[in-house]
Write a structure and sequence with these properties.
The complex is a heterodimer of chains A (115) and B (114). Chain A is mostly beta strands and 115 residues long. Helices cover 0% and strands 52% of the residues of chain A. The radius of gyration of chain B is 13 Å and the shape is globular. The chains are: A mainly beta (115), B mainly beta (114).
Amino acid sequence: AQKITQTQPGMFVQEKEAVTLDCTYDTSDQSYGLFWYKQPSSGEMIFLIYQGSYDEQNATEGRYSLNFQKARKSANLVISASQLGDSAMYFCAMSRYNQGGKLIFGQGTELSVKP
Amino acid sequence: NAGVTQTPKFQVLKTGQSMTLQCAQDMNHEYMSWYRQDPGMGLRLIHYSVGAGITDQGEVPNGYNVSRSTTEDFPLRLLSAAPSQTSVYFCASSYDFGGNTGYTFGSGTRLTVV
């Protein structure tokens, strides 16, 4: 069975600083993908970044990067130069390559950016 | 291109009533799924589908039914609503297992069962 663990229920960061949101996962599969989603107070789910289990380089998308450590089964999200608009819930999730449609989520981390 | 459309956005039901949450996508995605979101528990998978006519259970399927007669639509049915089903429900679709484009989510349905 797959499991995603996010151990930080809430985080604070000063505007313009970088912040790391932790995510660890548990799976016996070799082929899987890891995702991060942002959920602002308005409620929509916004896809941020993806990392495949066979990708050798860490994924980056603008100010977002994914620190992928396969041996440790961690997939931490790094947000550089935090902005007030980054205040939101952040969810880590995973999906097996042969199980499209089945996305498993962690409990989420609520990030607050201070001016 | 509307993406994933969920209706209704809000609904109040009495215990024991039935209803169907609608989900439609116009991206020709094969994979669709339903999630419920409760405070402190993230999103939990209810049911998912890998194509028309094929569905399977997720983490919390009890009390919910689904069917997938077309690629575009994936309705979620509550046969006899219970207060424990008060939640926010999200429908999502994807081209394959997600990949570089991720899963596309609808805007959610906030359901209250009294």
